[in-house]
Amino acid sequence: MDGRKMTTGLKSLIVCAAIAGLAVVQTLPSQETEPPKPRVQEEIFGFPADEQISHYLQNARNRTPIFVPGKCADNEILYPGDHESDWVCDCRPGHVYYPQTNKCYPLFMQGFCKSGEYVDVMRPSMIVNCTTNVCTGQNMVPYDGKCVELNRHNRICKRVGRVYWVIGVNATTLELGCVPPDATTMLHRVNGEDGEDEEPIQFEGANRCTNGTRTKYEGLC
Questions:
Q1: Phi, psi at 132, each rounded to 5°
Q2: Is pLDDT at 140 greater than 90 in this prediction?
Q3: By the 8 A CB rule, do 84 and 60 touch?
Q4: How far is Cα 102 from Cα 104, in angstroms, rounded to an integer?
Q5: Which of 36, 57, 64, 207 has the largest count of CB atoms under 10 Å?
């Protein structure tokens, strides 16, 4: 019995993992632990930072948008809220909010659209809609008069040093273009294409009031 209690106590260690390079902080096991609270819909869009996210989120002077596993709905990341310790879930860069389903979707992929279409926005209204995809094949989309594969170089983008840029979504214009592969890799990690994420990922330069976010759609900027 004592062995089981010791095991339970060890499991109550709270590990605060931040971005690579930050220290890992542990707290002593508590004698009594409260059962985890269920994650309700109201919590998805806004809540104060807590210890389980990490001390990094509580630093109001250096609050960079960040992905923390399990804290937001699919395709969302945490943005700094209106108060010093508040964080708000909203669409991550390259995604758009669709009010009919109350979800965020990646641009130029099928998302909520039917087969043979991809998620797009009407211009200049920026209303989210579905566009017929004239290209066939997985992740193939039209770009500059030809069919290209998303998140690949396609022999189109420039090379910077020894690194080729790839065709991806420009987070500012929400249009296809050549983007640095580092950004694309980061977005893939959030999607879980390289396995389930266990550590936070920073999104330098992301803005909750850019086109495509729920905040922008609801006129709260």
A1: -65, 130
A2: yes
A3: yes
A4: 7
A5: 57
DSSP SS3 for 5: helix
Q: Is the pLDDT reported for residue 62 higher than 70?
A: no
Task: Say whether 57 sits in a helix, a strand or coil.
Answer: helix
**Quick one: tokens of 199?**
């550590």
Please report, for residues 141, 176, 217, the alpha-carbon distance to residue 148 in angstroms, rounded to integers and kept in the order given. 6, 10, 30
Bridge partners (DSSP) of residue 96 are: 105
At 160, list the tokens.
């910077």
Rounded to whole angstroms, the Cα distance separating 135 from 109 reads: 12
The CA distances from residue 84 to 45, 125, 204, in Å, are 16, 33, 18
- Would you list the DSSP string of 58-103? G-TTS---EE-TTSS-TTEEEEE-SSTTEEEEEEPTTEEEETTTTE
Three-state SS across 172-220? CCCCEEEECHHHHHHHHHHHCCCCCCCCCEECCCCCCCCCCCHHHHCCC
